[in-house]
Amino acid sequence: MIAYRQRYVGLCRLADVQINDLLGAVRWFAGGHNRWVKSTIRQYRAALLQVIEDSQPDLPIAAAEELSAILKLGPKPRQSGPPRTSAKKRKSVPKSEFGLLLRHLRNRGRHPDDRLAARLLNHNVRLFLRPSEWRTAILQGNILIVRNGKATNGRALGFHRRLDLTDYGPEGVNDLSKLLVVLQKQAHTAEGFRRLWGRLASRIARACKEIGIKRLAPYTTRHIGMANAKSWMSPEEVAATAGHKTTATASSHYAKRRTAWRSKPSGVARPLPEDVAKVIGSRKVSREANLEFMKNREERMRDGPAGDTPTPPF
């Protein structure tokens, strides 16, 4: 029941209607043709039907029947087609190749956006934030407070998550603080931030072409960071760091553990225990993932970092 209510509240935010405007929410949802896939439509419809049921007896039977009839008419699901943008992003990059790209972007004489892009990439393999989350992230001491993306469709771990940056060290935290100021100063609006992000993505793509490697996007670092985290964090910790409500999301939709870099990057972020405790474990991944996690961690501790190109410093 709570999940249905939360999903309904999120839908009202998307529709820009008041929570008590049930008719407005239903009409907006029913008219959203080609907006969602079938599974998402089922979830929203179930939430709306539950709210309609919970509204009785205050809601007249005739009104409830009218709302239910509207829900049956729509919306039409989005048709299958080419993968959406995030699905087409490169999901793994060798550590040596990533280091080569950062060094190229940092070369003296490069465009200022190149150096800014290098800093963004270097931090995001440790933080693996979504693009939109960079615009509103706030540093309070060694704690990074992130406003979760996907929070309105029920997939996020609440509206915020907190990352402990103690392992970052003073130099790393200071550089991240300056980076946030630069990003948010250059793009203080959502539209401005999208333009800035597109500009940085173009500079990264150009640099990849110049050094002869397959193009990677800023979002690729979210995949890299999550794959690395899977090799030394528990599934619940990975989910909390990424802002996911369940362990299943990282397991199903992001880069696999086998693509992780051999050694853990220096200066990693860690989720707070309170956020980890909120994660819902998935039976599909819990036992197998935890067994593999322990096995891989033992192997990495035994093998050590030998043979890897060092992660570029901040």
Structural features, described:
The chain has 15 helices and 4 strands. Helix 3 (38-54) packs antiparallel against helix 4. Strands 1-2-3-4 form a 4-stranded antiparallel beta sheet. It has 2 domains: 2-73, no CATH class; 85-303, Orthogonal Bundle (hpI Integrase, Chain A). It is mainly α and 314 residues long. A hairpin with a 2-residue loop joins strand 1 and strand 2 (143-147).
- The radius of gyration is 22 Å
Structural class per helix/strand content?
Answer: mainly alpha
Please state the average pLDDT score. 82
The count of helical stretches stands at: 15
Please describe the structure with a list of short key phrases separated by commas or semicolons:
314 residues, mainly alpha, hpI Integrase, Chain A, elongated
Can you lay out the helices and strands and say which pair or pack?
Layout: H1 2-15, H2 22-30, H3 38-54, H4 61-73, H5 85-88, H6 95-106, H7 112-127, H8 131-136, E1 138-140, E2 143-147, E3 160-164, H9 169-186, H10 190-211, H11 220-230, H12 235-242, H13 248-253, E4 270-271, H14 273-276, H15 286-303
Antiparallel strand pairs: 1-2, 2-3, 3-4
